[in-house]
Amino acid sequence: MRSILTLAAMAAFASSLSAQAKTATPVAKAAETITKEDVAHRVGVVADDSMMGRDTPSPGLEKTAQYVADQFKKFGLKPGGDKGTWFMRYPLPSDDSQTAPLTVGILEGSDPKLKDEYVVFSAHMDHIGVSSGAADSINNGADDDGSGTTGVMELAEAFSQPGARPKRSIIFLTVSGEEKGLWGSAYFVEHPPVPIKQIVADLNIDMIGRNWKDTVVAIGKEHSDLGATLNRVNAEHPELGMTAIDDIWPDEQFYFRSDHYNFAKRGVPILFFFTGVHDDYHQPSDSPDKIDAEKEARILRLIYFLGQEVANAPERPKWKEESYKQIVTEP
Fold it and tell me: Is the pTM of this model over 0.90?
């Protein structure tokens, strides 16, 4: 009996050491920079009243773009915009005399060959501006999509940590004009800073700060092997207390309603992370105080580990044949 107990104790000790070694890796340590405190702070900045609802175009949108650029610079990313800047500017389809910004930061990959391929993390930093005739008229857009814009910044910070840089390069992208008709992402895929064929995946984040504590919807899982990769990564990280599920609202056609769709049409495999709409959707009441920052931080850690897997894999993600035929219109 004593020998059995001794063996059991040794096995438990070995298991504990293994778990500690896993959490002590540079990649795992980098994930720890994604915190509820940082999420709450950055959502608070992006969705502050001073941003005036981040309409496209607006001074508040410009301020948001500059804030994101300043964060990217702080993390040591390389500018990916026009003429060595952090910004790409596109003419508005509604008035081509005006322009709006995208903010394309780039982290160069560590592998001499794979660094010429890119994984994109995207979110839209715009919202719907100010509604007239109400006491509270500023549509803060904390969840839509201050949560996603914050997510891109959090991921950029994590990936830029020592020892966390993957083999493929990463583009951290915040677009505008999503609320007007996916304007910014449409411009990006037509004028990418790298050849579109070298972008292997787009992981898009739009509204991940509300609703369930333990669930995130990953729209598009069924269309490429990114779905299987996500399932595996999710299973490897039970400590996150987060489950990525399939689209539960197919009739709402969310696949076609955010910026990832412009990537998908050009042949880039995508996943769209989303926790659903709520009563504050497109209302002034979508405010920073209602964001569940602790939950969002766990979602972002899951997306981070998925990004590490995709950016380090020997092969790029692959479409399901039937999905490719149905979705890709501009190969």
Answer: yes
Prior bond of 145 cis (ω within 30°): yes
Domain region containing 281:
32-327
Confidence of residue 3 (pLDDT cuts 50, 70, 90): low
Q: Which of 323, 246, 312 is nearest to 26 (CA)?
A: 312
Cα separation, 169 vs 165, in Å, equals: 8
Residues 73 and 114 reside in one and the same domain: yes
Do residue 114 and residue 227 come from a single domain? yes
Mark whether 71 and 119 lie in a shared domain. yes
Task: Please report which confidence band the pLDDT of residue 1 belongs to, taking 50, 70 and 90 as the band edges.
Answer: very low
161 is written with which tokens?
Answer: 């940590």
Per-residue pLDDT of 194-253, as tens digits, reads 999 999 999 999 999 999 999 999 999 999 999 999 999 999 999 999 999 999 999 999
- Give the distance, in angstroms, between the CA of residue 223 and the centroid of all CA atoms in the same chain: 19
Enter the DSSP assignment of 45: H
Q: Is 19 in the same domain as 116?
A: no
d(CA 167, CA 146): 29
- Cis? peptide before 91, omega within 30° of 0: no
Identify whether residues 85 and 38 lie together within a single domain: yes
Task: Give the mean model confidence (pLDDT) for residues 258-273.
Answer: 98
- Domains of the chain: total: 2
